[in-house]
């Protein structure tokens, strides 16, 4: 257990209090022996560790980046989304914290049990709708009077965004999210019991000149089967396994490349003659090349200059001996 280090002034003050009788040494010992009591609210049961909350935050930071790119392409305007907070609260508290009339998308995330909620602030939802209909992204809050066409357009946009959620969670579990319900009144939405612990991920969202929040509500029952995968230990194991897989792939690739057949050529020299001279060439004519006899020759590997060599013979066959290696960009 970590010990608290006192400053010199604090030590002097403590000794002074003990000597003057303001503080009793026996009382200090008794307080130290007494058990420390911490208040625990059973209505706000903390069922996720800080480590697991950090993992959920990391997943949704990736989701926010993917969602930014997706909405920017779909709406053709400036979009910025970032994680504002990740908290665990009772479901009842989450319902009370969102507007009385808002945009609620309920998704199933097979093979995980239960459903999750994506709540889009009306300012954000209507800015998206206005952009889709050719507007400048103005936000007009009329959630209570959504037409069937507006509901369909919003549902289609939010359904297309599911690929980003699937990709973000792919590092932990393969999910198949499906949009099941589109609701505007949270009071009619009883996803889990009021005291059930849920993780609420809040995303700061800016679309054009409009800004608001996107809240993701994930009940404990959804995350329960994969809670062990949300620990740092799991991520480290996965990273080590990934490194081992990469090492094995590298070895396999190396063995395959070692069997590849290469075409080697040695260029004795070059020269230029006219077509007339070529037509009048006869036996024992001599053609002068551009390379001296004492100069090294160039060995090409698949028509790429790689080595400087000198010609010779080995076991009555023509051969070359490598004398130097050409650096990339070197000319023969």
The overall pLDDT average reads 80
Numbering strands along the chain, what is their spatial order in the largest sheet?
1-5-6-3-2-4
Q: Helices and strands, in N-to-C order? A: HHHEHEEHHHEEEHHEHEEE
What best-fitting shape do the alpha-carbon axes yield? elongated
CATH class of the largest domain: Alpha Beta
**CATH T-level topology of the largest domain:** Chemotaxis protein chec
For the sheet with most strands, the description reads:
6 strands, antiparallel
Question: Regions with pLDDT < 50 over 5+ consecutive residues?
Answer: none
Number of domains: 2
Number of separate helices? 10
Work out the radius of gyration: 36 Å
Residues in helices, as a percent range: 25-40%
Subcellular location: Bacterial flagellum basal body; Cell membrane
InterPro entries: CheC-like_sf, Flag_FliM, FliN-like_C, SpoA-like_sf
GO cellular component, one term: plasma membrane
Keywords: Bacterial flagellum, Cell membrane, Cell projection, Chemotaxis, Cilium, Coiled coil, Flagellar rotation, Flagellum, Membrane
Question: How would you portray this structure in words?
Answer:
With 332 residues, this protein is α+β, with helices and mostly antiparallel strands. The chain folds into two domains: 43-235, Chemotaxis protein chec (3-Layer(aba) Sandwich); 264-325, SpoA-like (Surface presentation of antigens (SPOA), Roll). It contains ten helices and ten strands. The strands form two sheets. The chain has a six-stranded antiparallel β-sheet with strand order 1-5-6-3-2-4. Helix 3 (50-75) packs antiparallel against helix 7 (162-169). The model has no long low-confidence stretch (mean pLDDT 80). Residues 257-325 form the Flagellar motor switch protein FliN-like C-terminal domain. InterPro entries: CheC-like_sf, Flag_FliM, FliN-like_C, SpoA-like_sf. Residues 236-263 form a coiled coil.
């Amino acid at each position: 257990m970590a010990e608290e280090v006192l400053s010199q002034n604090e030590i002097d003050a403590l000794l002074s209090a003990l000597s003057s009788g303001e503080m009793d040494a026996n009382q200090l010992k008794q307080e130290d022996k007494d058990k420390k009591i911490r208040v625990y609210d059973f209505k706000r049961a903390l069922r996720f560790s800080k480590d697991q909350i950090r993992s959920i935050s990391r997943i949704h930071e990736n989701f926010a980046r993917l969602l930014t790119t997706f909405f920017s392409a779909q709406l053709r305007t400036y979009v910025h989304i970032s994680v504002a907070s990740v908290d665990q609260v009772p479901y009842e508290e989450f319902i009370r914290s969102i507007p009385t009339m808002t945009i609620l998308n309920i998704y199933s995330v097979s093979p995980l049990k239960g459903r999750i909620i994506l709540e889009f602030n009306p300012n954000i939802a209507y800015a998206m709708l206005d952009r889709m209909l050719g507007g400048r992204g103005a936000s007009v809050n009329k959630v209570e009077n959504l037409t069937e066409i507006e509901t369909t357009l919003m549902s289609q946009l939010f359904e297309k965004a599911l690929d980003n959620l699937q990709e973000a969670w792919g590092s932990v579990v393969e999910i198949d999210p499906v949009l099941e319900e589109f609701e505007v009144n949270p009071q009619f939405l009883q996803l889990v019991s009021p005291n059930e612990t849920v993780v609420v991920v809040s995303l700061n969202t800016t679309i054009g000149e409009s800004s608001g929040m996107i809240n993701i509500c994930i009940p404990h029952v959804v995350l329960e089967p994969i809670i062990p995968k949300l620990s740092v230990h799991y991520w480290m194991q996965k990273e080590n396994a990934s490194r081992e897989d990469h090492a094995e792939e590298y070895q396999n690739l190396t063995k395959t490349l070692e069997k590849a057949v290469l075409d080697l050529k040695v260029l004795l020299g070059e020269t230029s003659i006219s077509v007339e001279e070529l037509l009048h060439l006869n036996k024992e004519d001599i053609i002068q090349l551009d390379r001296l006899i004492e100069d090294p020759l160039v060995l090409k590997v698949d028509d790429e200059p790689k080595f400087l060599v000198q010609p010779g013979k080995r076991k009555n066959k023509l051969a070359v001996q490598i004398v130097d290696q050409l650096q990339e960009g070197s000319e023969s």
